[in-house]
Amino acid sequence: MAEPERTLGDAAELLAGYLDHYRETVLSKIDGLGEEELRTSRVPSGWTPIGLVNHLAYVERRWMRWGFRAEQVERPWGGEAEWHPEVGAAEVIAFYREQCEHSRRIAASARLGDLARAGGRFTEDDRPTLAWIQFHLLQEYARHVGHLDIVRELNDGVTDD
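User: That's the sequence. What structure does it adopt?
Assistant: Structure tokens below.
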């Protein structure tokens, strides 16, 4: 998915467009890797490409569903399985896509200045705006897409966008 149009001036549309751009870029970075490659770490900290995708699914869930909407979700932090999923890559990708779609629907139903609900991740005195949460997600994606760039290059030399 391409970056949003350069002439786009609506902040909500621009932010949603960039989030979707990075969400799809994550999947493009792992496209073509087999199950073994997806579960092999190339870095000293030990994370794997599929572990990073699973982490990002939990990030979406943690910030948008549990955070902004205060939905009571099971294991918002994911535990050990967040970075080391115990299911196959196809299931991780489906979970990731599902969480991204939840996030899209939540964002589309709110305004950037709306405050997160209390009772999930946030207390009554600590409720960020939707804009703040989405910008946080955007920087998280930008950082992790860079990580995937490096790991993919180390894995098989692919350096495409």
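The chain has one domain: 13-156.
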